[in-house]
Write a structure and sequence with these properties.
By secondary structure, the protein is mostly helical. Helices cover 16% and strands 4% of the residues. A two-stranded antiparallel sheet has the order 1-2.
């Protein structure tokens, strides 16, 4: 009997899956995930925290851990495109 094969009568253990898989090159991102990443309210993952939506109407319901853009982002009425920061001339402001 091969040590790699499961014992007869036993099921194979379920593969571990993460609740919000990050897209890889072989797994394309969903439209809602792309929209979420381009939104002004997107908070990137940092310091061990997961990425989430920071909008004041979404955050209390969706939370900051395990945010899933699929149910929230496809038709979100709060969606705003991220603004590109403008370059400021140091001469325009003085303190």
């Amino acid at each position: 009997m091969d040590p790699q094969s499961p014992a007869p009568g036993r099921d194979r253990p379920a593969a571990a899956t993460s609740p919000t898989p990050s897209p890889t090159s072989d797994q394309p991102a969903s439209a809602s995930f792309i929209r979420f990443r381009s939104c002004r309210w997107y908070q990137p993952a940092e310091n061990g925290n997961a990425e989430f939506c920071t909008h004041r109407e979404v955050k209390p319901y969706a939370g900051t851990t395990g945010f899933d853009p699929d149910p929230w982002c496809p038709d979100c009425q709060y969606y705003k495109l991220r603004r590109a920061p403008k370059k400021r001339n140091p001469d325009d402001y003085s303190y």
